[in-house]
Amino acid sequence: MTTSARIGRRIGAAIGFIAFLIFGLVPGFYFGSYGSLVVLKHLLGSAVEPSILARIVVVVGTMLGLFCMASVSIVLGAVFGTAIGYLTDLATKPARKPAEAKAKAH
């Protein structure tokens, strides 16, 4: 892996984390807590009573939702950063002259 790709991966992961903080924090809370309430409703068969067990499941679901949103944001940022690093290497690499290409082939 080239140096540009490594640096791009780190910068992309940092940008992905910042994007998570700006755009993914609230949806992570929302989808995690709502998803855990839906699962509890289906398991219990009726409305969810505000018991300790239900609250624990909602907190765990919320943390899981936040973790999933953060990991997706960071991984996608790192992938895009790595791709940009490779594209930067390709764009800045000097082109071979035709004479050098023939000499290299023989």
Can you describe this structure?
The chain has 106 residues and is an all-alpha fold. The chain has one domain. Helix content is 86%, strand content 0%. The protein has 3 helices and no strands. Helix 1 runs antiparallel to helix 2. The longest helix is centred in the N-terminal third of the chain and has 42 residues, at 3-44. The radius of gyration is 24 Å and the shape is rod-shaped. The protein starts with a helix and ends with a helix.
How many helix segments? 3
Biggest sheet descriptor? none
What's the total number of strands? 0
How many independent structural domains? 1
Q: Looking at the structure, what is the overall shape?
A: rod-shaped
Helix content: over 70%
- Rg for CA atoms: 24 Å
Helices and strands, in order, run as: HHH
- Gap between N and C termini, in Å? 28 Å
Beta-strand residue percentage: under 5%
Report the mean per-residue pLDDT as an integer. Answer: 87
Low-confidence stretches: none
- Assembly category: single chain
Secondary structural class: mainly alpha
Outline of the structure:
The protein is mainly alpha-helical and 106 residues long. The protein has helices at residues 3-44, 52-92, 98-105. It has 3 helices and no strands.
Q: What labels describe this entry?
A:
106 residues, mainly alpha, rod-shaped
Write the topology of this structure.
Blueprint: H1 3-44, H2 52-92, H3 98-105
